[in-house]
Design the sequence.
């Protein structure tokens, strides 16, 4: 039996050893993962080329050396497109390892976008009420509030980075105190431990993107 292949496309550098084990556990041994990253082609002294401009959308991801990096969306997109095209030559479906939106990417095969999965899941769970967002960067607050805007849903946000020491439990508790009934951890960098901390801090249902999209991919391939 031919082993299925899933592409994992990060906006930083691959491999993402901090993320893919979570995905592999859900996909199972019968599915192989092939990774690629938007910044794979850049050398260490070229990383400044993707720094966000003053009006650019800012993303955050991880490098192979473990450091986090802020990335400007406009500078990332051409690099990401090249890596996606190469990845699709070897895979059946690609998981985008970022909760941002990338409508300009051209794909020959299906892409599982976490932001679309998260939005659809929240819409199925909530007709109204308050949604809590835990986000990595303060400078992302405005763009993420715009992305998550839905009629009849009030949004509350707290910042707690998955890439450095931060009080995720405290952030979740604050969201609960502000009336949130569901929490979304809006970055693929958040892991199962972060989710556990958020649940402990809030007692609420917490959506973790990396495991949610992995389950969609497993269902697609089964």
Sequence:
């Amino acid at each position: 039996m031919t082993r299925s292949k899933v592409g994992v496309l990060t906006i930083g550098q691959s491999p993402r050893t901090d993320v893919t084990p979570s995905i592999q556990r859900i996909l199972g041994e019968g599915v192989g993962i092939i990774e690629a990253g938007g910044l794979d082609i850049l050398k260490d002294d070229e990383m400044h080329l993707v720094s966000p401009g003053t009006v650019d959308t800012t993303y955050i991801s991880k490098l192979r050396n473990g450091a986090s990096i802020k990335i400007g969306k406009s500078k990332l997109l051409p690099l990401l497109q090249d890596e996606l095209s190469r990845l699709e030559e070897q895979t059946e479906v690609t998981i985008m390892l970022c909760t941002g939106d990338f409508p300009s990417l051209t794909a020959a095969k299906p892409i599982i976008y976490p932001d679309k999965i998260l939005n659809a899941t929240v819409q199925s769970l909530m007709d109204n009420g308050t949604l809590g967002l835990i986000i990595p960067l303060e400078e992302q607050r405005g763009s993420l509030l715009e992305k998550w805007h839905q009629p009849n849903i009030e949004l509350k946000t707290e910042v707690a980075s998955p890439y450095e020491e931060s009080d995720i439990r405290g952030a979740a508790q604050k969201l609960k105190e502000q009336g949130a009934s569901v929490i979304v951890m809006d970055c693929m960098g958040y892991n199962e431990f972060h989710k556990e901390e958020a649940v402990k801090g809030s007692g609420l249902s917490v959506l973790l993107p990396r495991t949610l999209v992995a389950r969609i991919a497993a269902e697609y391939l089964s």
